[in-house]
Structure formats: C-alpha cells, structure tokens
Amino acid sequence: MPLIAAIHTNNLSRFISGFVGRKAMVGWAGALMLVAAVTCTSVGEDTSVADVTKSAPATTASLPVDKASTGHTITASNGESVDTVIGDIPSEPQQSELVQKFTADEIVAAFESVISGLFADSLDSIVEITVSTAAGGGSGSGFVWDYQNHIVTNQHVISNAQSVEVSFSDGRSYRATVIGEDADADVAVLEVDTDDKLKPIKLGDSDTAVPGQIAIAIGNPFGEEFTLTQGIVSAVGRNIRSGNQGFTTPDVIQTDAAVNPGNSGGPLLNRHGEVIGINAQIRSDSRQNSGVGFAVPINIAKLVVPDLIESGEFVYAWLGVSGHDVSRTLALGLDLPDGTQGAYISQVISGGPAEDARLNDANRTIMVDGQPIDVGGDTVIGIDGTPIRSMADLISYLTSNTRPGDTVTLEVLEEGGDRVEKDVKLGVRP
Question: Which pLDDT score is estimated for 96?
C-alpha cells in the first residue's frame, strides 16, 4: 500500500498528537517515525512519494491506521520492545485492521521527495538578477510577485542600478525596470518588459513561523544559479538595520539555511513552498554563511509592495524616539516596579511627534550596581491597548498598524513609576 494512502490528512493530526506529552523518543526508529509524520503533512496525495514504498529493507516500524480510533499506536518489529522504539507506550497496544510499514529508506525518500518537489514547483517563479552600475555591477535573486510581471527583491540588490536584467532557470532573460524602492525594509519592486505571463510564487504568512520549522532558501549564491539550501527557522522577532539606514526592520526571521552573497532578494520558503521571508543579510566576519542568516518577513513585503507598485515608495509613520528594552538594572535606576518590561525612551528627536506629545527622554546618568545608567526617560508599556514589552514590540506595532497622521495613545511609566497616557499624532518618517 502506498505511503500516502496509509496516512490521510484527517488522520495526521491524531497521529502527531499521539507524540505530544510522551517521553523523548529513544532510538533511531522513533526518530524516523516522527520524520514520516512531518514529511507527510506537506506531501498530501503526491504519487511520486507513494512510489517510494515499492522497495522495503527488512527492518521496519509499524504504524496502525484506524479511522475509528482517537489516536494511533506505534509498534515495534523484529523482536524489539515498544519501549525501545518510543518510550512508555503500553506493551500490548491494540492492533488496528490496517497496518502500514515504513522503512528507513522510505521515510528518507519521502522527505527528499518533498524538498525536491518544492524546488521544482517554485523554480519557475525565481530569478537571478544582474545589475549594472556606474561602479561595475552585481547580482542577486528575486521572485515573481504577481501576474502583472512584478519581481520582488532586496533594495540593496538594485541600489544605484543603471540597468537590470532578470533570468529564469530555463534560460529566458528579460530587461527589467525598478519601479519602487524601500531602503528601510530593504524591499524593491521590478517590472519585467515582456508580454509573457510570468508565474507568481506562493506567499505565506510570516507570523506563523516558529523556531524549528523547516526553512528552504533558493537563490544564486556566489553566482551559482538556482541553488537550494535547507535548514530550520532558528529564531523569529529579530530586528535588523537595512544598509546604512537609521531605522530597523522588525519581526525578521533568523535561519540556519545557508545564505551567502547572491542569495539576497531570494525567497525563504516553508515546507508548503510558501514564501515566509526575503533573504537579506548574514552575520559573518567573512561575509560567508556562518549559520546565521536573516530574512525580511513576507508580511512586511505584503504591506510595502502594493505602495511601491502604485507610487514607487512606502511612507512610514514616525514617533520620533530612539531607545531600548528595559533591563533589571534600568528598572532599579528608574524606580519602576519589579519585573517591568517595556520600551525605554533614551532620546526624543527634536521637532518630532514625541517631543510635541511631551514624552520624556534620559536627562542624567547615575550609578546602579556599579554601572552607569542613563535615567529620566519614559517607558512605553502599551500602545492603543496593546501591551509593549520591548522596543521591538513598539517598532513592530508602528510599522504594521499605523500610518502618518494617525493618533496613538501610549501608556507609559514615568520615572518613579507613575502610570500615564499620552496621545501622539504620528508624523512621516524622515
């Protein structure tokens, strides 16, 4: 029986839930069964994966599939005890009528089929970008955004471009025009000069990304065309600065999928083949992959790209402050309640909205636990009823939920712990 026929989508959630709350799996067989569960969720009824079950080495683990039951039982074979396979499962599990056996080879083949199938499905929507500038040239990656032949990439890939060309994996090449740039989010939009209808890539939801999920990067590192690298989402909610800009991009996705020069502007995909981020930066002394890459969240691009297409720019709301998270030492210096979290305002920009709203910034330095601490500023702990626990929270809210001219209500703790509300009419980011 084919692998996918044995595990239907409506049974998968019950299968996975059977793992939750059990002791850590012991042994390779248990780990392989978990890989099978993860793999099958993205394959669906893919017959190419089903075909891998035709050959089967001797060592197997058995997975009963019973639609009438509330879960699935994992059993062992070749004389192994059940506890050897997966821990404290009852030694005499109830057998179902239908048992599908998976071999290690079948499980790995299913995983490989998912990754290679995802690559094949996405490839027609991914491009190599070649740029000519007065100083020479460069290259990067990008992907098709819509049926109007718009290409999305990083702004730094096409910065100062005199000419831009996009190339597809099948050899097609087109001249492209830069129609919009946003240096703050490091996003740019190109328009391809062709009557051909290009194939848009599938867009996902970057808010659903969590550490541990599979992440796939496709791009052109070091000019090596259409390269796939695979890893996991290492972290979410990072902030990065784009080039020489003084502002940060919030909610950035960190990944250990290899990202190198030339990957910039290419997609970071989830296991469903949906774009969750735009590969933008690496953290490395050598400018080569060190396991720490960053991708602009696709939800930021969804916010910015329509304006770039329509008007060539995206206008951000501006509060007019700089600052950082509240540490335990800073809270002591400000005489704030124990455990206070928030965005501390260390500087209010002269002539900005925050100054008009009389927000306070740091005005002196004191010693706390032997450390110099700048105190006197307000601590933002809420905005329009949304809790703020860090400067990243504040930046993320302003970016995603406000536009210039909006009035927001900040809940702040002043030095000494007084809780007050201050209304701020947001300006235009300079």
Answer: 53
Kindly state the average pLDDT of the residues 227-236.
95
Residue that the structure tokens 């994996």 belong to: 169
Q: For residue 375, give Cα distances in angstroms to 184, 247, 362.
A: 29, 23, 5
Q: Tell whether 188 and 308 lie within a shared domain.
A: yes
**If you average pLDDT over every residue of the chain, what do you get?**
81
SS3 call for 52: helix
Number of domains the chain contains: 3
E strands, 198-226, where?
A: 214-219
Which of helix, strand or coil describes residue 63?
strand
For the entire predicted model, the pTM comes to 0.73
- Indicate which residue of 206, 242, 264, 390 is catalytic: 264
**Residue 26 belongs to what domain range?**
3-116
259 DSSP assignment: -
**Residue 19 pLDDT more than 90?**
no
Name the phi and psi angles at 90, rounded to 5.
Answer: -50, 140
Please name the residues in contact with 182: beta carbons below 8 A apart, sequence gap of 6 or more. Answer: 155, 188, 304, 308, 313, 314
Catalytic residue among 141, 156, 256, 378: 156
**Boundary residue ending a domain (116, 144, 172):** 116
Same-domain check for residues 183 and 228? yes
Q: Which of 35-49, 97-111, 292-306 is predicted least confidently?
A: 35-49
Q: Do 145 and 288 lie in a common domain?
A: yes
Whether 299 contacts 290, CB under 8 Å: no
- 323 touches 347 (CB < 8 A): yes
Q: Is 186 a catalytic residue?
A: yes
- Count of CB atoms within 10 A of residue 188's CB? 30
Q: What gap in Å lies between CA 247 and CA 185, rounded to an integer? A: 9
Do 57 and 105 form a contact (C-beta atoms < 8 A)?
yes
H or E element that contains 176? strand 173-182
pLDDT for the residue numbered 55: 36
Q: What is the arithmetic mean of pLDDT over 354-383?
A: 95
- Give the model's pLDDT for residue 11: 42
Residues in the chain: 430
Per-residue pLDDT band at 391 (split at 50, 70, 90) = very high
Q: Tell me, rounded to whole angstroms, the distance of Cα 54 from its chain centroid.
A: 37
Instruction: Point out the catalytic residue in the list 184, 186, 251, 361.
Output: 186
Amino acid identity, position 208? T
Instruction: Record the tokens describing residue 270, joined without a space.
Output: 């989830």
| Residue from 313, 305, 295 nearest 152 by CA | 305
